TrEMBL record:
PROSITE patterns per the UniProt record, alphabetical: AAA (PS00674)
Domain AAA+ ATPase intervals: 73-218
Molecular function terms from GO: ATP binding; ATP hydrolysis activity
InterPro entries found in the cross-reference section: AAA+_ATPase, AAA_ATPase_domain, ATPase_AAA_core, ATPase_AAA_CS, P-loop_NTPase
Keywords, ordered alphabetically: ATP-binding, Nucleotide-binding
Ranges for region Disordered: 1-22
The protein's name: AAA+ ATPase domain-containing protein
A Pfam family hit: AAA
Family of this protein: Belongs to the AAA ATPase family.
Record organism: Calcidiscus leptoporus
Superkingdom of origin: Eukaryota
Amino acid sequence: MGGGGAEPSSLRVDAFGSSPLSSPTDGLIAGAARRGVRAFLIGAQRDAFDALLSVIDATSTHAQKLRSWRVRPPSGMLLFGPPGTGKTHVVRAVAEERALPLFALSCAEAGSAGGSYAARLRALFAKAQTAAEAASAARGALTPAVVFIDEIDAWCPKRSEPAVAAEQVHAVAQLLTLIDGHTPLLGVVTVAATNRPDAIDEALRRPGRFEWEVALGLPTRSHRLAFAREWSRDSSDAERSDIADATSGFSAADLLAVGRAVRLAAAARAALHGAAGCEAAAEAANSGEAPATTLTDWREAIGSVGSTVLRGVQPPSETISWSE
């Protein structure tokens, strides 16, 4: 289910076997070397996944044809949306789908491990270009590498803001040069993510830079219902409908946290039945079966997790279509 050659429609999130990007962010998060990454693509994540695949294909499979038409392939993509909507998962899933070298940079490590913002960007892009060249030579076909800049608003805020540091101003200029300079790096697709697209320097959002922008929204009721069907297979349709209604305003990450909490509660309940219960739970886990859950498990998990996006505010009423 998580191989690099799997069809996009087969991608799912495994909250137990999948973890956030935790490798050093200036190191190779090798899509070709790390298998089993599965993303639960719901709502706008599906659109983002397909759009990023299109950009990858434009810079590899269709690159020669585009050059013959004197059309420059897309240089970058910006993913934006509330926290927990799956921006990082989409990038990782696409890298897995195409088995591409993936390099990531986070503001959490900006300035750490030595070097300025601009120097870190130059070093990361140089590594990505080297990896793309090596992958292309090994496969005998043009294979791009992906550079993922998370929380780009912290790296490259608007230079017109009075509180912007000189290092951030230099980072904006450096990134513009790397993506859209006189000699832009070939074989590198740049993807950035942010919760605050309006906080990014305007120059980065012009054509030739992050010209493709994709919004990732919260799951709709139909998507939450699909999640409930996947994670509560022993529940009735009415109970799954209750779960979908109770998780209005929940992000993809919130839903996964709920699902994880539910299964942990079910596993703990099995353990309370003694060794026999533990053995039964172990057998179910080995066979790939999830532990049996109850509606009480779901209600308690939903109440404890809550919506990270709507904390402190009233969840908006949803418009339900006739098809739903």
